[in-house]
Amino acid sequence: MGISKPEGWAGPAQTDALVLASTARGKLSALNAEDFSRVWTFPTGEEDPKIDLEAIYDTPVVMGDTVYLAGYNGDVYALGLEDGSVRWQFEADDPIIASLAASETAVFFKAPRYCQAIIEWISAVPVSHGINDPFSTGSQAQ
Hints:
Layout: E1 13-14, E2 18-24, E3 27-32, E4 38-42, E5 61-63, E6 66-70, E7 75-80, E8 86-91, E9 101-102, E10 106-109, E11 115-116, E12 119-126, E13 135-140
Antiparallel strand pairs: 1-2, 2-3, 3-4, 5-6, 6-7, 7-8, 9-10, 10-12, 11-12, 12-13
């Protein structure tokens, strides 16, 4: 018996002008809210090195002109809302299958690497992040 590949089941997010939706396995598209024409898709398939999200399980989070997204590949991305360009990427090194949360200063995510036994730790990445320096909030999820 084989193991199935991740599929993803992300919900959409919406701004006044765009609907952000997982339109294919491991791809996020920004669609025009009026006619649903595609504005951009991430990843494009043209990145070097190649980006393969494998699947998207979290609803994208929009804060200002930035879209935050996590992939099953274990990376968290900050994308430009206008064009889907990568502003920064954080390597969590474990599949992320829970939704992100964001504040004005941090993006919160949960990944298996940050779990010990049944105690779940919440980690955060500063939104101005440019290097891999996660920190634990020091509190346990209840």
